[in-house]
Amino acid sequence: MKLQDYIRTIPDFPKKGILFRDITTLLSEQKAFRKAIDDLAKLLKNKKIDYIVSAEARGFIFGGALAYKLNCGFVPVRKPGKLPYKTYCHSYALEYGKDSLEIHKDAFSKGAKILVLDDLLATGGTALALAKLVEKLGGSVEAIAFLIELKEIGGRKKMKEYSVYSLIKF
Amino acid sequence: MKLQDYIRTIPDFPKKGILFRDITTLLSEQKAFRKAIDDLAKLLKNKKIDYIVSAEARGFIFGGALAYKLNCGFVPVRKPGKLPYKTYCHSYALEYGKDSLEIHKDAFSKGAKILVLDDLLATGGTALALAKLVEKLGGSVEAIAFLIELKEIGGRKKMKEYSVYSLIKF
User: Is residue B86 included in any domain, yes or no?
Assistant: First the structure.
């Protein structure tokens, strides 16, 4: 089973010229979804992870499943105003514009070992924002992992200080 | 371990007079998150589920983890304009206003056995919208399950035609 075969490519979404990699066709195929989570766990088997940190919304699907598989906690990072308690905010450029993300200030203790997980590595803006928020809380980014990496965009080059993993390369 | 103890209550969020039930304190506590997923799986052990259908964003965390645990597919339902392929849309009233949700038209085949899963049962608007979208695609709603049920709001009364489950009652 090749996970890449379960990703549907949709041209001109969300705007003209973009080849959108649609993960919903992987998620709905039980064996592919399971293999994706198991393969991510294998990539990270030498890492000790206390918490997975992911951004809404697609990141939550993999974050929840992998946290269950790895027996660790899950910390959601959300758009401004969505988290109910005290937060830190980080603003950043992303592939199709600009955005801000928030994390609860008490999400984990200093020194916690964190996996930053997202579905897609394009420019790397979202993942780097997650890493910055983790470090603001005193967490240690043990690894940054993605289901899909768009190699031509070169987002990986921006995260040389981290251990970066991806399952599917386009 | 009482799962209820891991839910943080935040007064006046998102607006005055609302007691917001914050699940992030359960998610970040590995044993509580694991128990929540395992207990949901136990509640549903006599159901044959092909796909879990959940709405963004918080629903994705539990949907992804429980789909992994139950060995089934996961189908995300999103706000309008977020899903890249052809969709059906359903508009509905929710606790703090009005909203619309979309599902991919080809998310699953007719007759598929579906679990609708959400983190919180308040008015029931979101879960009923999910059930309607499932039925529009010809799916069979085998059960509707929630992590938390706010009993006083009485959302359960609106879904008498379904099998409804919840883990934590407030």
Answer: yes
**Whole-structure pTM over 0.90, yes or no?**
yes
Number of A:B CB contacts under 8 A? 125
- DSSP state, A78? B
A56 annotated active-site: no
Question: Which residues constitute the domain of residue B58?
Answer: 46-169
A22 within 8 A of B85, measured Cβ to Cβ: yes
pLDDT, mean of residues B74-80:
97
- Rounded Cα–Cα distance for residues B124 and B142 (Å): 17
Q: Chain A closest CA to B65's CA: distance in Å?
A: 4
pLDDT given at position A92: 85
For residue B112, is it within any domain? yes
Q: Which residue has the tokens 């992870």?
A: A49
Tell me which residue in B64, B65, B76 faces A24 most closely, judged by beta carbons.
Answer: B76
Residues in chain B closer than 8 A to A69 (CB atoms): 68
The predicted structure's pLDDT at residue B92:
85
The one-letter code for the residue type at A155 is G
Tell me the CATH number at A119.
3.40.50.2020
Pick from A18, A22, A68 the residue to mutate for testing the B interface (most B CBs within 10 Å): A68
On the question of pLDDT at B95 being above 70, the answer is no
Q: How many domains does chain B have?
A: 1
Cα–Cα dist A91/A64, whole Å: 24
Q: Binning pLDDT at 50, 70 and 90, where does residue A95 land? A: low
Q: Is residue B65 part of a domain?
A: yes
**Structure tokens that stand for B135 in this block:** 């039925």
User: Any catalytic annotation for residue A152?
Assistant: no
Indicate whether A97 pLDDT > 80.
no
CA torsion angle for A116, A92, A89, B126 (degrees, to 10)? -70
Tell me the pLDDT of chain B averaged across its residues: 96
Report if residue B22 sits inside a domain. no
Restricting to A residues 32-91, those with a Cβ less than 8 Å away from any Cβ of B are 33-34, 37, 51, 56-58, 60-65, 67-69, 71-76, 78, 81-85
The predicted-structure confidence for B20-57, as pLDDT tens digits, reads as follows 999 999 999 999 999 999 999 999 999 999 999 999 99
